[in-house]
UniProtKB/TrEMBL annotation:
<dbReference type="InterPro" id="IPR027417">
    <property type="entry name" value="P-loop_NTPase"/>
</dbReference>
<keyword id="KW-0547">Nucleotide-binding</keyword>
<dbReference type="InterPro" id="IPR036018">
    <property type="entry name" value="MYSc_Myo11"/>
</dbReference>
<feature type="coiled-coil region">
    <location>
        <begin position="888"/>
        <end position="922"/>
    </location>
</feature>
<dbReference type="GO" id="GO:0016020">
    <property type="term" value="C:membrane"/>
</dbReference>
<keyword id="KW-0009">Actin-binding</keyword>
<dbReference type="GO" id="GO:0051015">
    <property type="term" value="F:actin filament binding"/>
</dbReference>
<keyword id="KW-0112">Calmodulin-binding</keyword>
<keyword id="KW-0505">Motor protein</keyword>
<feature type="domain" description="Myosin motor">
    <location>
        <begin position="73"/>
        <end position="743"/>
    </location>
</feature>
<feature type="compositionally biased region" description="Basic and acidic residues">
    <location>
        <begin position="1130"/>
        <end position="1145"/>
    </location>
</feature>
<keyword id="KW-0175">Coiled coil</keyword>
<feature type="region of interest" description="Actin-binding">
    <location>
        <begin position="624"/>
        <end position="646"/>
    </location>
</feature>
<dbReference type="GO" id="GO:0016459">
    <property type="term" value="C:myosin complex"/>
</dbReference>
<feature type="coiled-coil region">
    <location>
        <begin position="997"/>
        <end position="1080"/>
    </location>
</feature>
<dbReference type="GO" id="GO:0005516">
    <property type="term" value="F:calmodulin binding"/>
</dbReference>
<keyword id="KW-0067">ATP-binding</keyword>
Length: 1559
């Protein structure tokens, strides 16, 4: 506490800090603490309106300020809270627990809240990789972070560390310990005994220890009734070398005494549920039949199958290393303990004596003796008799029934305790320990503070342990505070804290402590629990930590650090006694069972004949002292486990329960220690950001942040604060005072804003009224103007009416005069007209009479002429009819010829139909034969196609002739019809005069009918011809379809040919690899030299036995090569070269010297690769059994890429090695391929016929297929039968290609990694941006700074792309490089976003979006040059996450919209993580709605229950993403004949073949 200061709670709440309108926390009987707003202050009484609608009146000392600006998702470190008090801590834990954030820091202490559900994504390998080596506090709180800090401290400082896991039963201590063990094994694990790691062995021991050391209590169904300290030992390299388990304070009394509804240890119930054979063997029954088990009514656990658990325990024993005999002995001892508990006693015949009560007890006595393999009478005597050895004599006395029961229970407890200790020792032996280890990490899993309704000796020991650990914890926390103050260089000499040493003295002090008085009472036979309690009352009546309850003779209360606990001393004496009874010792030591006798080894001579008292409390005190000595030699780390509710269900947070655990766990005590010093710490930037408005003039200066903070605090007038190197340290209550000042400034600013707003509203109203008045005036003036206009209009109308009336009168007078004149003129003109009419009528009558006469005269003359003309015409027409009749008779004779032509046409059509059907059958049969034989012979196909074409042409010619004949027949019929029609028309109308004309007419009619019949027949023939044409067209279509099918079959055959060839090449490569391995094995054997001398002749024989096919192929390839000058050289080339002469050695030296230099490129082709390939091909190096040229080339490449940082050199050799590998891939062919191919042909007839058909075609002769394209005529790319050195060279070249690719990729990753660390979080805004006047300039500077790091990444990418392009690296490899680089960027940015809450903000999302835009521009530019590929798609996770951060109105988005539209790639765990960590530092908006969060949590729970859940982190893929076949497919053909050799080669006569080929 601070000297002369009030308590922290008083400092937090004062009249200066709490004002009307303040948001505060007040106590609540239901929720523990509830927030509200102060509306009245009356002295020390504060009236608060709570958020649940109630009004509370509280004392100001119990009112705490609330931080209204706290993040909605809480803070990950309690020290970041503005107000470090109990309600603030509770609210922060509750908020984070609601979001499934179960881990929270309090400085260096980790608080773990049990989620009561599986969260597998928090503990997988991805999460371990993220926390490995990360600074403490850099990532989200996690148990891995604590383990990593302990491991790094052990490695770096060489000091042992310890991790103390505490908490009440059910808080998750065991699971937390398992997670710690997993992570430590991940950091330093190595294989242990029988392939199991030490961590696995320790975890496999848990089921055994839980079966014998765990039991059901009121609070937990699987409560550990012992403490456990696991020491993980490490060697000098940081690898796990051993482990040891230490146990503390097994609750021995539970064997004999249990309370309802608790249970005894699990092993008793498991044995009762064992198979029937074992139950019969041990004479067991149901748990209700045993005294040690039926003291409670609880015999079974919900959801637990005791029989299955028994089998699991037996399997765990097998894994740990306990043999079958030892297991049988263990469970025989457990069964014996149950039988011992059923032995009852009755009063004997003598005084203070006892005997076995009845036959049932006798049966259990016999069974116990049988199971322990000891004498029955000896066991009975050991239970009811005691032997006292005096100097004079040996006295045997009997025990009364009560003492006999105590002796029985003591035996049971002793046997069970020895059995548990043996199990622990056995497990330690199985795990193994490293005696040479100097560094260890200890994990302490120990019970937390306990305070029940009934507290006994076990609770005293447990709370004594926690008092010891709390003292150690307080010292550690105070030490951490001092280290923080020292690090920040502030004065802390006057700070102290309350120690709990007085409580420890009360319990452990000698000779006046509780444990010492208990041991003293246990030594006196007449002592009782009442006398012991009275002794305590007398001894500690003045001790402020010891309280005597009223109305109680045996209870006492101790004031622990976590609160007062009342203990019942009724069973303290019995539970503290641990007699070494000589009778028990001798009896069990003499057991015939080696296991039982091993549990009770012989005692020293001085104790063999007497019973010596051993104190449980004293022994536990020694163990605890040893544990504290171990902890004091280590660097401690603390994990406080909290159980959020007592129903053991997820999503339930009970405030009172958690508060009590925080008190018991010492968390609030640590907070009180922090409050004693400087509980509030803020960096200078954060302090200026929050309180800079208290002194705006300070921000305008150019002083640094520390001086600015100093000026602000001096201006306010605070005292007692301190300024460190990077933080402001405030005393308790000063943060509230600053917030109160800030609230005043903000209040004044709000009032100013309100005043301005009201002025604006009033002026707006005035302007509105003024506009209305002006509008009204304008309307009124408009009305007056309208009236004036109406008057003027009426006046103008009157003038117009007058004018029209005057006009009317004048016109009327004029029309009257005009009409009179017209009437007069009309009368005169009518009289003249009548006179003219009479004259014309008389003249017309005379003309008509003359006309009638002339008409009669002319008509009579016309009738006479007409009669004569008709007579002449009849005679002439009769003559013409006779001529036409003769012509018709001749036409009738020609009708027979038409019928014959028709018959010929019908026969022709039938013949055509038959030919078409024959063609169909022929085509179908040919197609079936072709498909069945799979294109057996391409020549037959060609002849068939020609035959088909000839037949089709013949059919078409015949059809054409038939059509011509039909057309001629049609024209003839038409002509006949026209002739007949003309004859009929020209025939005389009356032919009754002669009978010949009648007969001719009948013939004409018959001929006409015949002609119609011929027309019908002709039409039928035309239809038949059309049908034949249609059938012919359909046949042609079917023929075309069959041709297409044939072409498709040929294409498929070619593809299958390529596939078979690739498979043959792969098989040959595998055979060559096997050959390499065989030859390497032969080279290692001692008989290598002998085999080498023999192999010379064998090699020649094998080369000749390869068959004529390969030799023929090689000769054909040689014949095609124009670079070979003579046939003599061809004959010499048939035999592979066996050795190199000196000239060739010089040529090889020149080649190696040449390629060691940078030869550059010729039209995009690497000169070195082409030169190496052409030389090796000319020298026939691929076909020799021994050569050193390949090793020298590989050494030259290896020496060239030794400088891993030179990207230009790496790119140069990446281009050369990929080109050379491409040429080798398309050229080399392993030996034995022909024979393997022939075997495959015999095995598969279908592929054999296809390959033979294609191979036998004349078009495929002399050609070589590359990736489905046929290329021939290039002698440089010919298939060569490669030998072992060539195949080994190809494999080594492939390995170098992958190595160079990986080096370039890793160099680029290394270069941008440091930049990515700067790109994940936006740079902080400068202090100048806090001022309004310089906002625009600050924004411009901030915008420039926002993209500086991203531009550096883009610059690095551009530089690498330029280097790769300059060295003509294949675009396929370039795309792979940048695809993996962008995947690396995506993984790094996305994982950092999920693990760092400060990155999940709105402004940071905008920063990342701007950076991703830079990368998108780069990808767009690179994609135009086909170098980016799908790199941009690799950023899909970070792009969608950033899109979610910067989107507005998140609460309105549904889960379906988020998962389907916004972020379809992200998993539910990732979305949940981002949604809960998001905070808007720019606009203050909220994340998604609580309904969406709940839906995500439900989906995550379902995934975890179904074991589908996966990590929310991404994994970086560092594999090689391509194969040799991929490179071969992606790269185009390379023309190497015209590559110019370098001058060094051109001047050497040994390389003349390069110049000849070029010429």
């Amino acid at each position: 506490m601070i000297h002369g200061a009030e308590s922290p709670s008083t400092l937090y709440a004062s009249l200066d800090n709490i004002i009307v309108g303040s948001h505060v926390w007040v106590e609540d009987p239901v929720l523990a603490w509830i927030d509200g707003e102060v509306f009245k202050i009356n002295g020390n009484e504060v009236h608060v309106h709570t958020t649940n609608g109630k009004t509370v009146v509280a004392n100001i000392s119990k009112v705490f300020p609330k931080d209204t600006e706290a993040p909605p998702a809480g803070v990950d470190d309690m020290t970041k809270l503005s107000y470090l008090h109990e309600p603030g801590v509770l609210q922060n834990l509750a908020t984070r627990y609601e979001l499934n954030e179960i881990y929270t820091y309090t400085g260096n202490i980790l608080i773990a809240v049990n989620p009561f559900q599986r969260l597998p994504h928090l503990y997988d390998t991805h999460m371990m990789e993220q926390y490995q080596g990360a600074a403490f506090g850099e990532l989200s709180p996690h148990v891995f972070a604590v383990a990593d800090v302990a491991y790094r401290a052990m490695i770096n400082e060489g000091k042992s560390n310890s991790i103390l896991v505490s908490g009440e039963s059910g808080a998750g201590k065991t699971e937390t310990t398992k997670m710690l063990m997993r992570y430590l094994a991940y950091l330093g694990g190595r294989s242990g005994i029988e392939g199991r790691t030490v961590e696995q062995q320790v975890l496999e021991s848990n089921p055994v220890l839980e079966a014998f050391g765990n039991a059901k209590t009121v609070r937990n169904n699987n409560s550990s009734r012992f403490g456990k300290f696991v020491e993980i030992q490490f060697d000098n390299n940081g690898r796990i070398s051993g482990a040891a388990i230490r146990t503390y304070l097994l609750e021995r009394s539970r064997v004999c005494q249990i309370n309802d509804p608790e249970r005894n240890y699990h092993c008793f119930y498991l044995l009762c549920a064992a198979p029937h054979v074992e139950i019969e063997k041990y004479k067991l029954g149901s748990p209700q039949s045993f005294h040690y088990l039926n003291q409670s009514k609880c015999f079974k656990l919900d959801g637990v199958d005791e029989a299955q658990e028994y089998q699991s325990t037996r399997r765990a024993m097998d894994i740990v290393g306990i043999s079958e005999q030892e297991q049988e002995a263990i469970f025989r001892v457990v069964a014996a303990i149950l039988h011992i508990g059923n032995i009852d006693f009755a009063k004997g015949p003598e005084i203070d004596s006892s005997v076995i009560k009845d036959e049932k007890s006798r049966f259990h006595l016999n069974m116990a003796a049988e199971l322990l393999m000891c004498d029955v009478k000896g066991l009975e005597n050991a239970l009811i008799k005691r032997v006292m050895v005096t100097p004079e004599e040996v006295i045997t006395r009997t025990l009364d029934p009560a003492s006999a029961i105590v002796s029985r229970d003591g035996l049971a407890k002793t046997v069970y305790s020895r059995l548990f200790d043996w199990l622990v020792d056995k497990i330690n032996v199985s795990i193994g320990q490293d005696s040479n280890s100097k560094s260890l990490i200890g994990v302490l899993d120990i019970y937390g503070f306990e305070s029940f309704k009934c507290n006994s000796f076990e609770q005293l020991c447990i709370n004594y342990t926690n008092e010891k650990l709390q003292q150690h914890f307080n010292q550690h926390v105070f030490k951490m505070e001092q280290e923080e103050y020292t690090k920040e260089e502030i004065n802390w000499s006057y700070i102290e804290f309350v120690d709990n040493q007085d409580v420890l003295d009360l319990i452990e002090k000698k000779p006046g402590g509780i444990i010492a008085l208990l041991d003293e009472a246990c030594m006196f036979p007449k002592s009782t629990h009442e006398t012991f309690a009275q002794k305590l009352y007398q001894t500690f009546k003045n001790n402020k930590r010891f309280i005597k309850p009223k109305l109680s003779r045996t209870n006492f209360t101790i004031g622990h650090y976590a609160g007062e606990v009342t203990y019942q001393a009724d069973y303290f004496l019995d539970k503290n006694k641990d007699y070494v009874v000589a009778e028990h010792q001798e009896l069990l030591n003499a057991s015939k069972c080696p296991f039982v006798s091993g549990l009770f080894p012989p005692l020293p001579e001085e104790t063999s004949k007497s019973s010596k008292f051993s104190s449980i409390g004293a022994r536990f005190k020694q163990q605890l002292q040893s544990l504290m000595e171990t902890l004091n030699t280590t660097q401690p780390h603390y994990i406080r486990c909290v159980k959020p509710n007592n129903v053991l269900k997820p999503a339930i947070f009970e405030n009172f329960n958690v508060i009590q655990q925080l008190r018991c766990g010492g968390v609030l005590e640590a907070i009180r220690i922090s409050c004693a010093g400087y509980p509030t710490r803020r960096t200078f930037y954060e302090f200026l950001l929050r309180f800079g408005l208290l002194a705006p003039d300070v921000l305008e200066g150019n002083s640094d942040d520390k001086i600015a903070c100093q000026k602000i605090l001096d201006k306010i007038g605070l005292k007692g604060y301190q300024l460190g190197k990077s933080k402001v340290f405030l005393r308790a209550g000063q943060m509230a005072e600053l917030d109160a000042r800030r609230a005043e400034v903000l209040g004044r600013a709000a009032r100013t804003v309100q005043r301005q707003i009201r002025t604006y509203i009033a002026r707006k109203e005035f302007l509105k009224l003024r506009r209305a008045a002006i509008h009204l005036q304008s309307l009124w003036r408009g009305r007056l103007a309208c009236k004036l206009y109406e008057y003027m209009r009426r006046e103008a109308a009157a003038v117009k009416i007058q004018k029209n009336l005057h006009q009317y009168f004048a016109r009327k007078l004029y029309t009257t005069l005009r009409s009179s004149a017209i009437i007069l003129q009309t009368g005169l003109r009518a009289m003249t007209a009548r006179d003219d009419f009479r004259f014309k009528k008389q003249t017309k009558a005379s003309i008509c009479m003359q006309a009638r006469w002339r008409c009669h005269r002319d008509y009579s003359y016309y009738k006479r002429l007409q009669k004569a003309t008709l007579t002449y015409q009849c005679a002439w027409r009769q003559r013409l009819a006779r001529k036409e009749l003769r012509k018709l008779r001749m036409a009738a004779r020609e009708t027979g010829a038409l019928k014959e032509a028709k018959d010929k046409l019908e026969k022709r059509v039938e013949e055509l139909t038959w030919r078409l059907q024959l063609e169909k059958r022929l085509r179908y049969s040919v197609l079936v034969d072709e498909l069945r034989d799979n294109l057996l012979d391409s020549n037959m196909q060609t002849d068939l196609e020609e035959t088909k074409a000839q037949e089709i042409s013949k059919l078409q010619e015949m059809l054409h002739e038939t059509q011509l004949q039909v057309e001629e027949s049609k024209s003839m019929v038409i002509k006949e019809r026209e002739a007949a029609r003309k004859a009929i028309e020209e025939a005389p109308p009356v032919i009754k005069e002669t009978p010949v004309l009648v007969q001719d007419t009948e013939k004409i009619t018959a001929l006409t009918a015949e002609i119609e019949n011929l027309k019908a027949l002709l039409q039928t023939e035309k239809q038949a011809t059309d049908a034949a044409n249609k059938s012919l067209a359909e046949a042609q279509e079917r023929n075309n379809e069959l041709l297409k099918k044939v072409e498709d079959s040929e294409a498929k055959a070619e593809q299958l040919q390529d596939t078979v060839q690739r498979l043959e090449e792969k098989v040959s490569n595998l055979e060559s690899e096997n050959q390499v391995l065989r030859q390497q094995a032969v080279a290692i054997s001692p008989t290598t030299r002998a085999l080498t001398t023999r192999s010379k002749t064998n090699i020649v024989q094998r080369s000749t036995e390869n068959g004529n096919i390969l030799n023929g192929e090689s000769k054909l390839a040689l014949d095609l090569s124009p670079g070979i000058p003579s046939s003599k050289e061809l004959q010499n080339d048939d035999k592979p070269q066996k050795s190199l002469n000196e000239k060739q050695q010089e040529n090889q030296d020149s080649l190696i010297e040449c390629i060691s230099k940078d030869l550059g490129f010729s039209q995009g082709r690497p000169i070195a690769a082409c030169l190496i390939y052409r030389c090796l091909l000319h020298w026939r190096s691929f076909e020799v059994e021994r050569t050193s040229i390949f090793d020298r080339i590989i050494q030259a490449i290896g020496s060239a890429i030794e400088a891993q940082d030179n990207t230009d050199v790496l790119s140069y050799w990446l281009s050369n090695s990929s080109t050379l590998l491409l040429l080798l891939q398309r050229t080399l062919k392993a030996s034995g391929t022909a024979s393997l191919t022939s075997q495959r042909r015999r095995a598969s007839a279908l592929f054999g016929r296809m390959s033979q058909g294609i191979r036998s075609s004349p078009q495929s002769a002399g050609l070589f297929s590359f990736n489905g394209r046929m290329m021939g005529g290039l002698s440089d790319l010919r298939q060569v039968e490669a030998k072992y050195p060539a195949l080994l060279f190809k494999q080594q070249l492939t390995a170098f290609l992958e190595k160079i690719y990986g080096m370039i990729r890793d160099n680029l990753k290394k270069e941008i990694s440091s930049l990515l660390a700067l790109c994940i979080q936006a740079p902080r805004t400068s202090r100048a941006s806090l001022l309004k006047g310089s906002r625009s300039q600050a924004n411009a500077m901030a915008q420039q700074a926002r993209i500086a790091h991203w531009q550096s990444i883009v610059k690095s990418l551009t530089n690498y792309l330029k280097i790769l392009k300059a060295n003509y690296v294949p675009p396929f490899l370039v795309r792979k490089v940048f695809t993996q680089i962008f995947s690396f960027i995506n993984v790094q940015l996305f994982n950092s976003l999920l693990l760092r809450r400060e990155c999940c903000s709105f402004s940071n999302g905008e920063y990342l979006k701007a950076g991703l835009t830079e990368l998108e521009h780069w990808c767009y530019d690179a994609t135009e040059e086909v170098y980016a590929g799908s790199a941009w798609d690799e950023l899909k996770h970070i792009r969608q996450a950033v899109g979610f951060l910067v989107i507005h109105q998140k609460p309105k988005k549904t889960l379906k919209e988020i998962t389907n539209d916004l972020c379809p790639v992200l998993s539910i765990q990732q979305l949940y993580r981002i949604s809960t960590m998001y905070w808007d530092d720019k606009y203050g908006t909220h994340s998604v709605s609580s309904e969406v969060i709940s839906s995500m949590r439900v989906m995550m729970t379902e995934d975890s229950n179904s074991a589908v859940g996966s990590s929310f982190l991404l994994d970086d893929d560092s594999s090689i993403p391509f194969s040799v076949d991929d490179i071969s497919k992606s790269m185009t053909e390379i023309e190497i004949a015209d590559v110019d050799p370098p001058p060094l080669i051109r001047q050497n006569s040994g390389f003349a073949f390069l110049l000849q080929r070029k010429e």
